[in-house]
Amino acid sequence: MTPELVSIGAIHAAADTLKTVAVRTPLLRASALSDELGASIFLKPEMLQRSGAFKFRGAYSFLAGLSVVERARGVIAPSSGNHGQAVALAARLFGVRATVVMPTTVTEAKRVGAERYGARIILAGTTTKDRMDRAVELVESEGATLVPPFDDARIIAGQGTVGLEIVDDLPDVGTVLVPVGGGGLSAGVAAAVKQLRPGVRVVGVEPSNAAKLTAARAAGEPVTLQSTHSIADGLMSIRIGTVPFAHHEAFIDDVVTVDDSAIVTAMRHLLDRAKLVAEPSGAITVAALLDGRVTPRGSTVAILSGGNIEWPGLKALLDA
User: Fold this and answer.
1) Read out DSSP for 166-211?
2) For 98-123, how does the pLDDT look when each residue is reduced to its tens digit (9 = 90+)?
3) Number of structural domains in the chain
4) What are 12-42's pLDDT values in tens digits?
5) Is 55 a catalytic residue?
């Protein structure tokens, strides 16, 4: 059965919930990128969001929807990093316990970030399945509530507030580029933008070696990749979420892939020319523009999904 799509009303309700706690990130004209491409390019810098990435929007929206009794039992989040930090912060704001299950390969910046917000950290394997399996075990043994990273309507509605802000700040937007990991952000942004401006082109961008949405669209349903690898650690899900995929089919016009080398070039461009620090997952939309994978059509917005990367990691990538 096809999941019910998130309505524009639900996304507006999420925006109301987030109004006093989330950052309304600005829409910045990317002058250097605009000059280089001969187009009108804007950046949506979600690295300026609380916890350093867009994930806070969905995490807080989800926790806000829980009952007092459910929150009292605590929450558990499987995460490669940014979702875990967002859940940890949201849980702290609500005064509840949070456990984050992270991969053994998690970057120090993301692990320390979740710990800083008071979360208990448990490391489990290297894959999305490893983390989810361990999180489910903990939910069953401790009675806590699982906070899914992307495959949930409340999460999608929260992430969709990024799209609301884009349309509000740039009414004549023609193209929106959004990173694709498990699919929560891309589903939410596409749902918001398309329900408000059906003529806007929405393009998902994913790593060449983690092209789970590309594979799903070819098959007509979510498929599980044997493995994924990329410097964009936040986009390495091996399978697109079932609920997000329904939104992708309804609202996303196209999906493109980019190589890691193009992501590094985009990170360097953002640092040098826009003075913005983006983690690899956050820079992938600019990579698609610089690499010619997407040709701007009208006023074009590249969503920068996050900036959680520590100095040694950033330096190592840019010096490579």
Assistant:
1) HHHH-TTEEEEEEE-SSSHHHHHHHHHHHHH-TTSEEEEEEEGGG-
2) 999 998 988 888 888 899 999 999 99
3) 2
4) 999 999 999 999 999 999 999 999 999 999 9
5) yes
Cβ pair 202, 160 in contact under 8 A: no
The catalytic position among 40, 44, 51, 55 is: 55
Q: Which of 146, 163, 194 marks a domain boundary? A: 146
Q: 230 falls in which pLDDT band (50, 70, 90)? A: very high
**Catalytic status, residue 305:** yes
User: Among 89, 124, 146, where does a domain finish?
Assistant: 146
Q: How far is CA 33 from CA 30, 72, 164, 200, 301, in A?
A: 5, 47, 24, 20, 11
Unique residue bearing structure tokens 């650690």 = 233
Q: What's the pTM?
A: 0.95
pLDDT of 1 > 80? The answer is no
Concatenated DSSP letters for 268-292? HHHHHHS-----HHHHHHHHHHHTT
Residue-level pLDDT at 81:
84
Written as six digits, the tokens of 268 are 């360097």
